[in-house]
Amino acid sequence: MHKYDTLKKVLLYIVLACIAVVAIFPFFYILMASFRTNMEIFEYALPFTWKTLIPQEWTFDNYIAIFTDFNYGTALRNTVIVVAVLVPLVLIISALGGFAFAFFDFKGKTALFSLCLISFMVPTDAIALPLYDLVSDLGLVNTYWGMILPSAASGLAMFLFTQFFKEIPKSLLEAARIDGANWLQVFGSIVLPLSVPVTITAGLMAFVNEWNNFFWPLLVARKEEIRTLQVALSYFSDENEVFFSYIFAGATISAIVPVLVFLPLQKYFVQGISSSGVKG
Length: 280
Description:
Low-confidence stretches: none
Structural class: mainly alpha
Number of helices: 16
Radius of gyration: 23 Å
Shape: globular
């Protein structure tokens, strides 16, 4: 029986190692290709050998070029601004909405919560045209708010907060109310401090979603001075050539930031998902 368990663990580790290699390989290739010239990328593409992965002549010119010739620094700044405003906004709106759904009974509550669930099942592409018309009528095209406001209310984040808040004993809230606290004080002093895991989970989801957002910023942020990272990547070309080496360099920077944000918060992310998404 002991040998069987050991063999089972070995097989499991082999499968997990294979999955890890498959997951990491694209990022590794992009990272290595970002230090190669455009010519070298195609020269060693086929047949597949170690030269396909490891640069023969290392160069940092790609990183220099995307910041000097393509204003990638501006796109990076724009993305940071949008994310820095959007994530707190999503957390505030979603937490307040989840608080209402979890602790209050009101007319139409079930219908509203159902709409909340449906909202994160509908892809943005399906509502892009009417949403663009609304943003255009408000004069928000080519502005930061045009990218921020449509994503400020997240149905998924509100669902996570609602499910998490339902696990908080109502006796805590009732005791605070008896002591004279109003509902906002109860929310800020009792509920939120207990909700660190789900807050980090919802924040990470909003951050990654907006950081990688391409389609909506492409529609509403067409001017170069307002472009975000993902849109800027699509402009690494000219009339005659696509600069894949520049794309790989830009994609490396774009990918590293979410990874650096996610890794130290991974524990809270798992806690938030397990306590919010499974329990009813």
